[in-house]
Amino acid sequence: MIQSIYVFADLLLKEILEQRCDPENRFYLPGLPVTNQELLYVLTPVQPEVNVDPGLRTLWEELSDTLMTEDVYEDAPRLLKLRWLYRLDEVWLLAVVLAFIEQSDPKYKKAFLVLQGDSGNKGLDLSLVKAFAKYLGIAADKSMMRLASDCREKADLFERREDSRLILRKNVFWWLCGSDNEMQRGCRVYPMMEEPATIHVKESAWVSGVAEGELERGSKERLVFEIQGRPGAGKKYFSRECAAKLGYRICVFRLSYILELDRQEGYELLCSCFFVCRVNGCIPYLDLTECDVESMETRHLVESIVSEYKLIFIGTTPDQILAKAVSFTTQKVSLDELSVEDSLALWNKIGSQYQVAEDVDYKLLAGKYRLLPADICEVFVRAKRRCGQSEEQQIDNALILPCVRECSQLSENILMEQIHTVFQWEDLKVKPENARAMKLACAHLKYRFQAQEYLGDRYPYGRGVSVLMYGPPGTGKTMAAQVIANELQMDLYRVDLSQVSSKYVGETAKNLERIFREAQQANVILFFDEADSLFGKRTEVKESNDKYANQETSYILQRIESYDGMVILATNIARNFDPAFMRRITISIQFEMPDEEMRRQLWEDMLQDTELGGNEKLISNLASQFELSGSNIKSIVRNAVYVALMEQRKLDAADIAAALRIEYEKMGRMLDQSNMVSILY
Predict the structure, then answer these.
(1) Of 264, 277, 357, 611, which is least packed with CB atoms within 10 Å of its CB?
(2) Is 153 exposed, middle or buried (0-12, 13-18, 19+ CB in 10 A)?
């Protein structure tokens, strides 16, 4: 096809130029940038590889007939595809052919300069196209009017200019030359999805079904699907699945990049994106996630793009309200969180691309961690990187679990602080029934996928877990929370109630909403210490403040119930909680003051690495005569060690006695001196 175009162009120019020169092929136009040698080069046609009819009009008729056919097959010449995609008539086709040859070989530009008859560097323009059309016997009046306008076809194919020059856009020229420019600065064409949908199957089936029905009916209604979700939620992946069901690919328009350019450059880039989208047979996807949807520039850009297409996808984030910014209506699809089933399917699909050890339990990962599709991909990338250059090393739990926690990092938030979990089960001294209740709480997160298989749609309210730990101060509630976090291999964050509570109406609920939302996104455990101050009983309404306080309490109760992670609440007095809240607690664990046997174990653990570690008599006396909590015992041993270090000697019973006096004074209790004798002697 390209060869035929060059043959036609050479014959056309040869006929016209021979009429403009003397018998010796010389021109007498002063200042014309064409030498006689160059002119002779122009007048030497390309030798065709096949025999063609040398008649110029006959050759054009054959060429135009080939290009004007409606039979556009997969391997058809690109000029034929271009004509079909833009519905170009003969005049437009001639303009594209002439512009293409001018940019492909300097000799044609020289020829156009000769025909212009001046010394300016003008080249192909509308007047030359009209003259060529008239010479070939093509009616050109209506087409020339449209070619002179700023219509969509001209904007996509030709550069925008103040004069009448016709210059093909670079991406159009290179595409005609055979280059697959599927990636521009402002857009990218994604390959066709060949595998069936893995996640959001119901949603993608609904979108493709609606779109297919409207297209088959030939409806004039514009279909705009707003795909909403957090960064990494799989909006492009979802759109690719929907487009694939309709037999298309998607072309992603990077609107944030286009908006950064000045008006003229942005327009030129947008036209190039239109061309890339059309010639690759794509459904456009407008990426608005990094744009200010309320700005006038964004609104104008989105409106102008949407007006050009019948079917389009738009990607937004949950905090962007597109409906208020644009005039058209959208069909919204929310990709907030992956269901456990979708998460499991994605773990299996992505994991199949790597060498994964048998100890990696995808059901456990899908049930315990609520990761986005992009996060799951990143987990495997990081785990593979930790394997180093070894192709044989498999990704096991020891590699994958730290990567999961890295991908679940919580952004800096003054309302929460991370607790560095150092305690394990062997460090915790609690009653067997308490330990069993803690393990049951862990099981709620570990095995919630299996539980859903048993319970099905009867699974109540959500899959979150709320654990209430109540009992006297120092009995191990915070330590128990750390043990649970270590067992689940999840980060633990303490909520700063002083920052959460506010005297202003509604601010406390807003702060809590932010905490729950970010914690769920980061897969962390929330720990509310002294939670009764926040989750207290509702009161009788006597004034307006009571009404708003009760509304906030009601909101908190509902938010705890809908939270999809684990919440641990610690309090000294459980009866201070609202009865409605107590009904929503998954597991309640009472921590009591340790009995003598437990106190003996605590003293042994605290003193085992000191000089007093083997002193059974001392440990027995301390356990039997002093009713202390685990926190008190820990504080006494720590102070005793500092006393010995301060006096630069070994730890002895006198240091323990001194630390006991300090601790009792701190608690405001009287120390029985008779009990001290059994320690010192």
Answers:
(1) 264
(2) middle
Q: How many residues does the chain have?
A: 681
Element (H, E) at 413: none
The model carries a pTM of 0.71
- As to burial, measured by CB atoms within 10 angstroms (0-12 exposed, 13-18 middle, 19+ buried), residue 438 is buried
**Which amino acid is residue 11, in one-letter code?**
L
Q: What is the pLDDT of residues 469-502, one digit of tens each?
A: 988 888 888 899 999 999 988 889 888 777 776 6
Please identify which residue in the block is written with the tokens 């487009």: 243
- Check residues 345 and 459 and name the one with the higher pLDDT: 345
Beta-bridge mates of residue 137: none
Asked if residues 559 and 513 have their Cβ atoms less than 8 Å apart, the reply is: yes
**How far is it, in rounded angstroms, from Cα 420 to Cα 492?**
7
Which residues, at least 6 apart from 60, have a Cβ–Cβ distance to it below 8 Å? 8, 12, 136
- Is 140 within 8 Å of 134 (Cβ atoms)? yes
At 266, which amino acid appears?
A: G
Which DSSP symbol is given to 301? H
Cβ neighbour number for residue 665 with a 10 Å cutoff: 11
In angstroms, the CA 164 to CA 187 distance is: 29
Q: Report d(CA 522, CA 533) in Å as an integer.
A: 26
Contact 531, 573 (CB under 8 A): no
- Cα–Cα separations (whole angstroms), residue 238 to 289, 333, 366, 554: 15, 10, 19, 36
Question: Per-residue pLDDT for 236 more than 50?
Answer: yes
| Cβ proximity of 482 and 419 under 8 Å | yes
pLDDT tens profile 84-115: 888 888 888 888 888 888 887 777 777 777 67
Tell me the CA distances in angstroms from 218 to 17, 214, 602, one per residue in order: 50, 6, 78
For the purposes of burial, counting CB atoms within 10 Å of the CB of 523, is it exposed (0-12), middle (13-18) or buried (19 or more)? buried
Write out the two tokens for 641.
């060690």
For the chain, how far is it from start to end, CA to CA, in angstroms? 110
Show the DSSP H helices in 563-652 as ranges.
Answer: 579-584, 596-607, 616-625, 630-646
Which structure tokens are listed for 104? 């492909």
Question: What's the helix, strand, coil split of the chain in %, to 5?
Answer: 55, 10, 35
Task: Count the Cβ atoms, other than its own, within 10 Å of residue 242.
Answer: 29
Q: Which residues contact 565 (CB under 8 A, 6 or more apart)?
A: 370, 445, 464, 465, 519, 520, 523, 524, 525, 526
| Residue 458 to residue 461: CA distance in whole angstroms | 9
CA angle, residues 247, 248, 252, in degrees to nearest 5: 160
Residue pLDDT, tens place only, 161-174: 878 888 888 888 88
Q: Dmax over Cα atoms in the chain, in whole Å?
A: 136
Rounded Cα gap, residues 491 and 523, in angstroms: 8
Kindly state the tokens that stand for 358. Answer: 């048998």
For 459-543, strand residue ranges (E) read 465-470, 492-495, 525-529
Please state the separation of Cα 139 from the chain's center in Å.
Answer: 53
What's the burial of 411, exposed, middle or buried (CB within 10 Å: 0-12/13-18/19+)? exposed
Residue 447 CA to residue 149 CA, distance in Å, equals 66
In the sheet where 492-495 sits, what is the strand order? 416-419, 492-495, 525-529, 566-571, 465-470, 587-590
Does residue 35 have a pLDDT over 60? no
Residues 6+ apart with CB under 8 A from 459: 451, 452
Q: Which two tokens stand for residue 293?
A: 């949807």
The C-alpha atoms of residue 599 and residue 627 are separated, in whole angstroms, by 8
